Amino acid sequence: MSETSPKLRAELDGIPTYKPGRPAAADGPVAFKLSSNENPYPPLPGVMETAIAAAHTFNRYPDMACTALVNELADRFGVPVEHLATGTGSVGVAQSLVQATSGPGDEIVYAWRSFEAYPIISQISGAASVRVPLTAGEVHDLDAMADAVTERTRLIFVCNPNNPTGTVVRRAELERFLDRVPSDVLVVLDEAYREFNRDPEVPDGVEIYRDRPNVAVLRTFSKAYGLAGLRVGFAIAHEPVAAALRKTAVPFGVSQLAQDAAVASLRAEDELLGRVGSLVCERTRVHETLVKQGWTVPPTQANFVWLRLGERTVEFAAACEKAGVMVRPFPGEGVRITIGEDEANDLFLRTADAFRNGG
Ligand SMILES: *Cc1c(COP(=O)(O)O)cnc(C)c1O
């Protein structure tokens, strides 16, 4: 027997592992999870019944083409079914986009800090990450991102609103940026938090993509629609991009539970978007209270707020955990806090105030 281990691709060395938001401690007095940008509302009764009904057939493979969901989405967004591709969460679709476009020797451009899945899926592909720092206001620096494009660039992520800062790019600056990007470079507008946006100057990616064949829009059912645990997201893109996604998707990746629950959620959209409205009100309250307490908080259009705490990040996260609130620290940089149940937000705000006043 040989002593050597199976040969693995060198690209896998040093890939940062995705750190999920830590769950609430089971033994604490009160414990809220504000670390993963999840929807705090439980599943809607009608959606739950649909998922339970689908569970009765899980001895069968799901519909591989996600026919009912794709038809529903095509109607909802007014796009051809050929422009839709589904996946195991929009992270699954993002990974397919990277695989379909990029490999060793290529470059993928994105803002930093942004969504932590981007460096992981880029590195797996063998392409190099080109990270363009956010501006002092925590916003994508689109001019610098356009400047960073080279002959090797294959894909650019624009996360709007941006995770973890909640900041947005507006229509005029995005259009100007897209006009500068060569038409053979794919620009992915990651709109995971689109439904939480209330800034009328922030464009709907679906409108932007219509006359731009090099733009793909990513959306997810995980956040506003509350289906994070079911893993379903989708892309809207022209062919051949959408067709490439359907080719590279993991066969049968999206379960029938997820497909049926997603269709039911689209049909219950009024109710779900009402919940989003309540979360947006809570976001305003949390943001305003933090500002009153003296914190610097960038304006947010997502379901979270960002505190750039630098060296005090870990200490702050520990204080929150001790108080019964799990938040998401990025050591040395800052803390992202999801807008949750009113009670959780209250507890977080009291903890933040106490921290400012020295404990
Ligand atoms: C949460 C999130 C997603 C969506 O993840 P899913 O895989 O759909 O659960 C995508 N992009 C960003 C920026 C996110 O924060």
From TrEMBL:
It is an enzyme of class 2 (transferase). InterPro entries: Aminotrans_II_pyridoxalP_BS, Aminotransferase_I/II_large, ArAT, HisP_aminotrans, HistidinolP_aminotransfase, PyrdxlP-dep_Trfase, PyrdxlP-dep_Trfase_major, PyrdxlP-dep_Trfase_small. Keywords: Aminotransferase, Pyridoxal phosphate, Transferase. GO terms for biological process: L-histidine biosynthetic process. HAMAP family: HisC_aminotrans_2, Phe_aminotrans_2. GO terms for molecular function: aromatic-amino-acid transaminase activity; histidinol-phosphate transaminase activity; pyridoxal phosphate binding. Its cofactor is pyridoxal 5'-phosphate. Residues 1-22 are annotated as: Disordered. It comes from Streptomyces jumonjinensis. The keyword Lyase does not apply. Residues 32-346 form the Aminotransferase class I/classII large domain. SUPFAM superfamilies: PLP-dependent transferases. Belongs to the class-II pyridoxal-phosphate-dependent aminotransferase family. Residues 1-12 have a biased composition (Basic and acidic residues). The lineage of its organism: Bacteria, Bacillati, Actinomycetota, Actinomycetes, Kitasatosporales. The modification N6-(pyridoxal phosphate)lysine is found at residue 223. It catalyses: an aromatic L-alpha-amino acid + 2-oxoglutarate = an aromatic oxo-acid + L-glutamate. Its EC number is 2.6.1.57. The gene is hisC. This is Aromatic amino acid aminotransferase. Aminotransferase that catalyzes the conversion of aromatic amino acids and 2-oxoglutarate into corresponding aromatic oxo acids and L-glutamate. Homodimer.
